[in-house]
Queue: 2 jobs
Job 1
Amino acid sequence: MKLSVILAHPNKQSFNHAIAETAVDSLKQNGHDVVFHDLYDEGFNPVLPWDEIPERAALSPELEAYCGEIAAADGIIIVHPNWWGQPPAILKGWVDRVFRPGVAYQFLEGDKGEGVPIGLLKARAAIVFNTSNTDREREVKAFGDPLETLWKNCIFDLCGVKTFYRRMFSVVVTSSAKQRSKWLEEVQGAVSRYFPANAAKSDVPH
Ligand SMILES: Cc1cc2nc3c(=O)[nH]c(=O)nc-3n(C[C@H](O)[C@H](O)[C@H](O)COP(=O)(O)O)c2cc1C
């Protein structure tokens, strides 16, 4: 299977990088084709310009490549820290520019954009790994865990990816090395559960 792994974290020594590396290694060990994007390393420009918004807009070759990859992916894994209940701006902009009409979703004939679009992504499953410094109970009670709604409903469900798994690791700042290595084992386990060795697309759990 073809897997896209997208990482948004500015520090190569971060736990987020360790998560992404573990996910990529697990996928490769399971025999999948992996395309990995470290958005900071690539200097991704997250600003969506006005002339790029129309469905038939001319795109730069770089953006065409990002869009082509996500359209062709059998599975998508996103890794990022919780920043104000949101993804880092670089990743928000990646969604703005890459999950575009005609690539990730489409309005039906005659719909000017007011209706419910149909999802176009063919990925069988999406996984989101997050980190934060807020314990789970407070995240849910005080903030409503906005990243769950954002990724599960607003983005992946809308774009046609119905099988979704998300795990937020917290509290990172006070975590021990032992805890972090257990979390990385969890990453490996989740990746292999959704994208097992030698899996056909039909093997992905629903
Ligand atoms: C700009 C910014 C905003 C942040 N906002 C939150 C937040 O809303 N909730 C939270 O629990 N942690 C927040 N944090 C802490 C990060 O989530 C935390 O540093 C990160 O998940 C730790 O993972 P790392 O070691 O890979 O950086 C924020 C950090 C930064 C830099």
Note: The chain has seven helices and seven strands.
Job 2
Amino acid sequence: MNVHTDAPPRELTVVPRCALHAVPSTLLIPLAARAWGDERYPWLACGDQDARRLLACLEPGARAWLDDAWVVLNVLWRTRVLKEVAGRFFAAHPHAAGVNLGCGLSNPFQWLDTGRNTWVDADLPEVMSLRHTLLPARPPRWRGVAVDLRTPGWWRRLGLPAGRAARRPGKRPAEPVFLLCEGVLMYLRPPQVRAVLQEFAAQAPPGSQFLADFISCLGVGHARWVPSLAHSRAQFHWGAGGWSDFTDAHPRLRLLERHSAAEIRGLWLRLMEAGCEPLLGPALYGMALLGVADALLTGDAT
Ligand SMILES: C[S@@+](CC[C@H](N)C(=O)[O-])C[C@H]1O[C@@H](n2cnc3c(N)ncnc32)[C@H](O)[C@@H]1O
């Protein structure tokens, strides 16, 4: 249902923000950016068809988050990067599966549906039950699955194709998978981030991609300085100290693309980031696109 309105649909109850725990409640911030950011920053407009309606059901006062310009711009920028990167992937693999890890109430499938691909939205159980009420998936091509990324085995629980099958004689290679992980890794502990990357690397069929945003390692422990997060109890636990943080976790991981949100903020920030990389890591806020080497290096390793 794509409705452009600020009022909650009559059949839905307004869900109070306090119904969500600290980290899940952060889903409201990118939702607000996608709902209202287009008006303020039309040059980065994302054209989200669902965000305003969903927000009206959850947090009618969410317009206040628009004043956190840094975060709103980051969300609109990352949506643009996502559309470009994932758009290319699904143009090359129109039947492949897409996965939105830590999906919150975002709906990138509205832009990435080829008519033949499949999509899985995955988040903690409390978010998935909210999602089931407000933004139900439509099986069989679009599914929602409750999963905790801190628990190993999420690849199998999501029902994703096992890359290992590609090595069995007579078996057709599995389709590659596209994974999106926006606004999630910074809330996990470093060993948990490493484990998520390892599971992707160990399981993904050749050609799969993993797109994640990240904050600088300087931001760890400082969520209170982000106006939209200041009153939540959510905290940043992980930030990238170097691009190698993404690939060190597993020998199969490859860094395919690097993006910094400094690209929308002008030359001075780009120069500052380039000069301060040893201190602040790859970017104050950025995105990494990871791929996997063709060979599978775990389990039945060569
Ligand atoms: C800032 S929100 C981002 C939501 C969405 N990706 C977006 O861009 O609108 C962070 C999301 O990560 C989810 N999340 C955090 N820790 C998680 C975990 N261990 N397993 C699954 N999801 C998690 C939260 O529940 C929340 O929905």
Note: The radius of gyration is 19 Å.
